[in-house]
Amino acid sequence: MNKLLLFIVSITALAAGLFFATQNNAPDLSDLSGFVFPNPETLSAVDLVNHNSEPLTETDFKDQWTFVYVGYTFCPDACPMTLTTLNQLTGILEEKGKLQASTLLVSVDPERDTPEHMKNYVTYFNEGFMAASGAPEAISHFADQVSASYSVPEDKSDPNYLVDHSSAIILINPDAAVHAIFTPPQDATVIAGDFERLVAHYKSR
Fold it and tell me: What pLDDT score was predicted for residue 5?
């Protein structure tokens, strides 16, 4: 009986030691430039159409990291600036070699942003970038899940109407869950360093 008790105590101590060792080896995220969700929510019922006129669902986010930006192609300032930053980020990650992530623009302006127009727009910044849009209800559902806000004007008589929208870069993890959000100001070098730590922390779980 004493030997059995000693064995149980030894196994428990070993397990606790391994747990704390793993925790201590996990990267420190306290000074991250973005906000990390402690319990990432998995995307659900995503019903968009990508720039190749193909369905985009939550399964398309699995098994990869994805940077998502919610905006529109007729945006005069924030969107092109952010996509430029994301292109710089992609270049930095490619130089690092081991770190890879996709980039997706989700348009909240489906009336003007046809698949063909979105494709021409995002590939101007980077040939590997993707874009998607969809029915207003589907866009709203996706935006809510990634904590993005926007407001499309009711009066669209002016063909150059503007759409108000938040300007965060959202990071989706390989579980298709919303992992982190980077709000302005956004620096490609800083985000690349943060992403490297986030990936290491994710793998250490």
Answer: 36
